[in-house]
Specification:
The chain is an alpha/beta fold and 197 residues long. It is built from five helices and seven strands.
Length: 197
């Protein structure tokens, strides 16, 4: 698996990425609604309310382009955004529905799982997956299952770059933050983790 070098803090990360334009492309609740795979894609996955939409807004330097909510489970579709960097390169960022939130019906959760699994395993333009994890909770069963899916035999023909992104770090006592970030790595996890407030 390819690991992604540690990124600087968000304020410098935005400048380094050089994103100058961002726009909504599509939202899909089923495979037939997925937009055509045109540009290389980076998917953002994680528990409900872990901060995916906030991170995407920060990366894209847009306040409300990705929908944020204090209510877990707000993102119910795979939402696609196209971004253009200063050198003219076009990328697609995909915001995946949050997992681990049980207030939805079993049928809806199963539908989400089928959509997300099919997307992660079959999307030809998908190049990397950022897995967001609450720094206070560390990697839990859902995150480990996601890594098993990404690294399992069904994905062996199309390896993906993966990176763990620590969120909610501002809620961890300052002296405990380095240990919290290190706890998100293990012999089978990326050696370096990005982090944000």
């Amino acid at each position: 698996r390819t690991t992604i070098p540690q990124k600087p803090a968000p304020t410098t990360m935005h400048r380094d990425l050089g994103i100058v334009e961002a726009r909504f492309v599509a939202a899909a609740m089923q495979a037939s609604e997925l937009p055509a795979p045109v540009h290389l894609e980076i998917a953002f996955a994680g528990r409900s309310n872990v901060g995916k939409s906030s991170l995407l807004n920060g990366i894209m330097q847009r306040k409300n382009l990705a929908r944020t909510s204090s209510t877990p489970g707000c993102t119910r579709k795979i939402t696609f955004y196209e971004v253009r960097t200063r050198d003219g390169t076009l990328w697609t960022l995909a915001d995946l529905p949050g997992y681990g939130y049980a207030a939805r019906s079993k049928a809806e959760l199963a539908s989400w799982a089928e959509l997300i699994e099919g997307y992660l395993l079959a999307r030809s333009s998908l190049a990397a997956v950022a897995v967001l994890a609450d720094a206070r909770r560390g990697l839990e069963t859902e995150e480990l299952k996601l890594f098993e899916l990404l690294e399992g035999p069904r994905s062996s023909q199309r390896p993906l770059a993966t990176v763990v992104v620590a969120t909610k770090l501002d809620k961890v006592p300052r002296g405990d933050r380095p240990r919290a970030v290190r706890a998100l790595s293990s012999p089978t996890r990326p050696a370096s983790c990005s982090h944000l407030r």
